[in-house]
Automatic annotation (TrEMBL):
GO terms for molecular function: serine-type endopeptidase activity. Residues 817-830 have a biased composition (Basic and acidic residues). It comes from Micromonospora halophytica. Pfam families: Peptidase_S8. Gene3D superfamilies: Peptidase S8/S53 domain. Residues 553-814 form the Peptidase S8/S53 domain. Residues 148-177, 515-534, 809-832 are annotated as: Disordered. The chain crosses the membrane at residues 21-44, 64-86, 98-116, 122-138, 181-201, 213-235, 247-268, 274-293, 314-336, 356-380, 392-410. The active site is at D562, H599, S775. This is Subtilase family protein.
Length: 849
């Protein structure tokens, strides 16, 4: 057994060479302000740019974040490099080195945002790897400086001698050699758990692999922070005998806060870094207090171990680095593991959805960070007081750990809520040669029954082996027949396995929204019932259809797939078809029509609402919920389209209990499925083809990504068998927001236009409101079709003739004033369709036919 070396008092270190010139300090202050300002501004700018592209329906700019990272390295790293090389002050040079290292880390981490957000597991794995490599490089460079020795002018004062041993092995007394965490490390754990607490309350975990990778990434980021803020860093702010804790906490905390800002800026996909920009830098003062406590315990004459003689991290400030790692690692775990970056979006910011709760968590984290700085500064670093013992620190950390567990299991959202996979099979049903049957509803019902039979037979024949294999692996497969596909659990490994199977065409990510602590308040309307026909109904002549032709849409059923419908609204209650197969909610399993978002109620009101708001007030409606908190995925869109082909009772099997004879006649769809929700261009194409073969007319919104041409891209609007609708204003002028054609491949889109600006319709709770969008225009065209088929039941299911009549009777629309680029991109192309739908002319033509 090796004898314990004799105790050696640490004598005064060579004095730190100082300069009387204030300019190095002034330069450091200016460089710090520049670092903070540019980093925050560039991160906000990048996120806003992402949101603008998303809202505009434009392709994601993959080079955006690499360019921001490179510019940050050049524009922020340059001043930091100058500070690291030029001043005579050792503290200023140390500050420059730390800021430069953090900026380079941001440059490396920021490059990873080129990974699409939909592949979050791949991003987290790359983040963990990059952070680990960065931490290793920082430690190696620090080790070389320590081995090579520092010049006399670069050495710390008395109190920092122990700090130079930050990464060295602590000598242990005879006996067990296990390392026991001391107060500093335990208080770091406690601080990290306190920072995690708000996220545990408001957030929700993703999938298992996603959660494990987020934990690994958080651990490596904590290691990186501990490497950047190791003993060599704090030594430059530990001056005097004994050291002045106030200087260490205040000055060192400020400098460390600037170090943590670039680290925070590099953590998470676009959006997830924003709360960390607010929360992580203030924790630097708590880290400074932890290090001050470690230095105090390492001073000669102070107790460096527990009363029982076990070695702890208090004897060497390496414990402060470990404390920093725990505090920062747990601090970044919240945004990484408990939020989905795709949901931190301005598209959800109008309600109390994920952006609201992320803001709440960020505010709570900031309050915790400030309290940690104040509490640790008083508890651990105040002169004249003995720092708390290891037992107190352990009890504090344990209490916070229990609190986190209780909150996660109680007011939090326990469980895993990861994305699923949609497996699209190669073989799709052959619907060629479906007999036309007699005209009218009888022929439509016969076609729908034959289409349903062929779709189910194909799915049952081709899915069996794969469904059994997925069930054996406990991946919870959900089969579909409208598109021959299966939704299942699984991460990247399962996706790779499925993609290699011969019967599989492709595998898509089926997005899932994570639960929130409380539902958003129901979106209501503050306008009274109009009492007479609204302007848009008059504009297309629907009121004349009622009064002059005596047609209101009776005998026709309109199907709505949207956020839901308030079935008790006075303008809608009488129109609900009723029965046990007229409502389906695959998101929440509700049994009666309801709607908290308002979008679906508004659109159904414009199609069939009473009180002057609907185009076909005599028609009935059925509904399905395919949007939850304004987000969907390909599986949920399929759920509703499948229900519309063959409705089934609650709890029924869509494959066995479908009733194609109860299918609605025309479908209004004011939604689109962009890539961020998991759709590709062709995923819903078999669905709309099957509905068309069954004689069910699919009407869909063009989208709100105008005025540029070629902006109708999200399914199902671009499909040729879908009746796609754009929007005009009161002057019959195409609105700026209305998406233009042509569709990908050159198809002329939209097909028709309808009023979509300032449309008054029903909202949940019995009120009314005006909304803008092609979503508002689409149900009016569906209502016109209901009027046509009510006037001439022989047209039911005759989609070709119905389309011809609508186009032939449409009235020209005026083109909006657009930018030169938009005008040039549309030059010589049909980008706004046949014109504005004319209900009166269309119904007259339908009756004549």
């Amino acid at each position: 057994m090796q004898a314990e070396p004799p105790h050696r008092n640490v004598g005064p270190a060579p004095p730190v060479v100082r300069t009387d010139s204030p300019w190095p300090v002034v330069a450091a202050v200016l460089a710090g302000l520049w670092t903070v300002g540019f980093t925050v501004l560039s991160q906000l700018t990048g996120w806003v740019a992402d949101q603008v592209l998303l809202a505009s329906g434009l392709d994601r700019a993959v080079p955006l974040w690499p360019m921001i990272s490179l510019s940050t390295v050049l524009l922020v790293g340059g001043p930091a490099l100058a500070l690291a090389l030029l001043p005579r002050s050792t503290a200023v040079r140390a500050t420059g080195r730390a800021w430069l290292a953090a900026t380079l880390a941001l440059g490396a981490l920021g490059l990873l945002r080129a990974v699409p957000p939909v592949h979050h597991e791949a991003y987290l794995a790359a983040l963990a790897t990059t952070a680990a490599l960065a931490a290793l490089v920082v430690r190696r460079l620090a080790g070389r400086r320590a081995v090579g020795g520092a010049p006399a002018t670069d050495r710390p004062g008395d109190g920092a001698v122990a700090a130079e041993a930050d990464d060295r092995t602590v000598r242990r007394p005879p006996g067990p050699t296990r390392w026991t965490p001391g107060p500093v490390t335990l208080f770091g754990v406690a601080g990290g758990l306190a920072l995690l607490l708000p996220w545990v309350w408001v957030g929700a975990l993703g999938g298992l692999l996603e959660t494990l990778l987020a934990g690994l990434a958080a651990a490596t980021l904590g290691t990186l922070a501990g490497s950047l803020l190791g003993g060599a860093f704090w030594a430059r702010f530990t001056v005097g005998t004994p050291p002045a804790p106030a200087r260490l906490v205040l000055v060192g905390g400020l400098v460390a806060g600037v170090v943590l800002l670039p680290v925070a800026a590099g953590v998470g996909h676009s959006g997830a870094q924003l709360p960390l920009l607010l929360v992580l830098p203030p924790t630097a003062f708590a880290l400074a207090a932890l290090h001050a406590a470690a230095v105090r315990r390492a001073q000669p004459g102070t107790a460096g171990g527990d009363p029982d003689g076990r070695p702890t991290d208090a004897a060497a400030p390496g414990g402060a680095a470990a404390g920093a790692g725990w505090l920062v690692g747990l601090g970044v775990l919240g945004p990484l593991a408990l939020t989905d970056p795709e949901e931190i979006t301005l598209l959800l910011a109008t309600t109390r959805d994920v952006p609201f709760w992320v803001t709440v968590a960020a505010g709570g984290g900031l309050a915790v960070a400030v309290l940690l700085a104040l509490g640790y500064g008083v508890l651990l670093a105040r002169p004249g007081t003995r720092p708390p013992s290891r037992r107190v620190a352990a009890v504090t950390a344990a209490a916070l750990l229990v609190t986190v567990g209780v909150v996660a299991a109680g007011p939090g959202q326990p469980g895993l809520h990861g994305e699923r996979l949609l497996v699209v099979l190669r073989e799709q049903a052959d619907l060629a040669g479906v007999p036309a049957g007699p005209p009218g509803r009888a022929g439509r019902d016969a076609r729908a029954a034959e289409v349903y039979r062929r779709l189910v037979d194909t799915a049952e024949r081709t899915q069996g082996d794969l469904r059994r294999e997925l069930a054996r692996l406990r991946l919870r497969p959900t089969p579909y027949y409208l598109v021959n596909a299966i939704e299942t659990d699984g991460g990247p490994a399962v996706r790779a396995w499925l993609s290699g199977r011969p019967e599989v065409a492709r595998v898509l990510v089926s997005q899932r929204v994570r639960p929130v602590p409380a539902p958003a308040p129901t979106t209501g309307g503050d306008r009274p019932a109009p009492g007479t026909s609204v302007w848009n109904v008059r504009t297309i002549g629907a009121d004349r259809v009622w009064s002059e032709l005596g047609v209101t849409g009776s005998g026709v059923v309109v199907g709505s797939s949207d956020s839901g419908v308030d079935g008790r609204h006075p303008a809608l209650a009488a129109g609900f078809r009723g029965g046990d197969d007229s409502w389906y909610d695959p998101w929440n399993g509700t049994r009666a029509p309801n709607d908290s978002g308002g979008h679906g109620t508004h659109t159904v009101g414009s199609a069939v609402g009473r009180d002057g708001i609907g185009v076909a007030p005599g028609a009935d409606w059925v509904g399905c919920v395919n949007l939850d908190r304004n987000l969907g995925n390909p599986a949920r869109y399929l759920d509703c389209l499948q229900f519309m082909l063959a409705p089934f009772p609650p709890g029924g099997d869509p494959f066995a209990d479908g009733r194609p004879a109860r299918a609605p006649d025309v479908l209004t769809n004011s939604w689109g499925c962009p890539p961020i929700e998991g759709c590709d261009a062709g995923v819903l194409r078999p669905a709309t083809a099957a509905l068309t073969a069954a004689g069910i007319l699919v009407v869909a919104a063009a989208g709100n990504t105008g005025p540029y041409c070629g902006s109708i891209v999200d399914p199902p609007a671009p499909y040729p068998d879908v009746l796609t609708v754009g929007a005009v204003d009161r002057d019959r002028t195409v609105t700026e927001f209305s998406s233009r054609g042509p569709a990908p491949g050159g198809a002329a889109k939209p097909d028709l236009l309808a009023p979509g600006a300032g449309v008054l319709s029903a909202m949940p709770g019995g009120g009314y409101a005006t909304l803008d969008g092609t979503s508002m225009a689409t149900p009016q065209v569906a209502g016109v079709v209901a009027l046509m088929w009510s006037a001439n039941p022989a047209l039911v299911g005759d989609l070709a003739r119905t389309r011809d009549i609508l186009r032939e009777t449409a009235k020209p629309a005026g083109e909006s004033t657009r930018t030169d680029a938009a005008r040039q991109s549309c030059e010589g192309r049909d980008s706004t369709g046949a014109g504005v739908v004319d209900a009166y002319a269309a119904v007259r033509a339908a009756r004549a036919g």
